[in-house]
Amino acid sequence: MQFENPFGVAELIELGGSAAVVLLMIGVAAILGFRMSARIDDGELTRLAEAEGVRVDGSVIAKNGRTALARLSDGRVMVARVMGADVSARFAPANAVSLNVKQRRLNATFADTGFPPLKMRLDEQPAWLNEFSGGGGSSK
In total, how many domains does the chain have? Predict the structure, then answer.
């Protein structure tokens, strides 16, 4: 019994061409910043708050720079999250946020069930987080 190769030269050329195009697209994506990711810092939080016409009164940013919680001058709370190469911000009234800080971990749950809870580790716990319940949120 003799084995017949189902692929001819034309199919092998087509396969090689396809592989080359895929590698080219991956190379272009890497050059254009495929692996780039935004980071949140105080400047980014200030920019997001100013777009809403308020200022940041206090903030806590995750160690990896991908999530942040900020108390705003108008009493609202801003949550910022990195989403790919951009930062998404969500603003909520302080009384719509349930805040739980235990063992250097912050968990914020929102009254809007469509918005996922914020979970992050804290290096230090700012005083305003302890006072947050006075601003409308609940701290447990």
Answer: 2
**Which residue's structure tokens are 């942040």?**
68
Mark 19-54 as b/e (b = at least 16 C-beta within 10 Å): eeeeeeeeeeeeeeeeeeebebeeebbeebbeeeeb
Residues 31 and 48 in one domain: no
Residue type, 89: A
* Mean pLDDT, the chain, integer: 83
Entry pTM = 0.68
Q: Which domain holds residue 135?
A: 42-139
DSSP state of 117: P
Do 79 and 90 meet the contact criterion of CB atoms below 8 Å apart? yes
139 pLDDT band (50/70/90 cuts)?
very low
CB atoms near residue 17 (< 10 Å): 10
**Would you say how long the chain is, in residues?**
140
Structure tokens at 19: 């592989």
